[in-house]
Amino acid sequence: MTDLKVAALLLACSLFAAAPASAFQGGADGCGAGSCRDCHALSKQEAATLLKDKVGEVLNVQFSEVPGLWDVEAVYEGQKIPLYLDFSKQYLISGSVIKLKDDVDLSERRYVSMNRIDTAKIPLEDAVVIGKVDAPGKIIVFDDPECKFCAKLHPEMEKVVAEHPELAFFIKIFPLPSHPGSLPKAKAVICAKAKGDNSKAAALLADALHGRPVPAPDCTTDQPEKNVALAKSLGIGTTPTLIMPDGRVLPGYKKAADIVALVNEPAEK
Question: Rounded to two decimals, what is the model's pTM?
Fold first, then answer.
């Protein structure tokens, strides 16, 4: 049974088991007289007690977008995760909760929002820039010179900056250990950037992404290794990975329209 079916089954059981008939009849003293949220409360301390054997810490509790559930922000094995408790406080739901209307994975969206990073801690001096360096909206991209999905992403980034000059991409060269040929190419790109030639660095990166020959690096640099260590510290292990201006970390290839929509997406509470 899929996570979605399990979630739906547990939700249905919990709501019908916990709610008296008057809750559905609009009685003067029942939940039907107003919002069901008026009848239910869950403190962070109570959630921590309920989940004491399952998570390390409860950070926040709020009403979920899903009727009859609370969103619980918890820490599990050092990572922030979204969990759901029903109003009866008898059922815990973990895994994907999907909004059928637009096929949005609410759990994934909450996870991404919970695990934002501080973009100010990412040095950008070595980054290859697509767009205006002084653009107010900076999207950081971790790119591998031999990544085929990175090659697909680059024209999409160019579309974004052509239509939205307020956005720019700052590409951190991240040679994956699984691509041993990427390291010398990464060094060649970074050497060009270190000499102040962003255009040459971008051209070398484009050559690498499309399988064209890239000359040997003409400087000594350990910046690719530093970028690998940085990516590891941020929990990034795949390319491409985009970091939105607000710190949301989004792995994988995306189309230009989707990138713009993600930038403009309202912030999660």
Answer: 0.77
